[in-house]
User: Fold Tf2-1-like SH3-like domain-containing protein from Lithospermum erythrorhizon.
Amino acid sequence: MSPFEALYGYKPPLLSTSPHLKDVSTEAAAIIEQMRQITQLIKHNLYLAQERMKRLADLKRTDREFQIGDIVFLKLQPYRQNSVSLRKHLKLASKFYGPFKIIANIGLWHTSCNFLKNP
Assistant:
């Protein structure tokens, strides 16, 4: 579903630019070219906004490497992961759980923790 269809409830009108429309008036050709330029400008602006959001989000990210035996806290989202601790008011639930000891590095970004007992 396109954003236009979501907003207005019907599919957008299609301005066909197929090769069989060679006898199109100059006014229609100008409108089609203007629509093409607007579409290109919108795509470019969306690309710039995505790049800006990614650049600002990357400023807050850091690369972390954990070794076997390190002690870590796990950050959980209280509204989605409520299997760790059940609370009457989820808004007041803890965000960080642990400490847990890392027992294995599975890959570059994945580690295995000892969840059964705290160190």
In short: The mean pLDDT is 79.
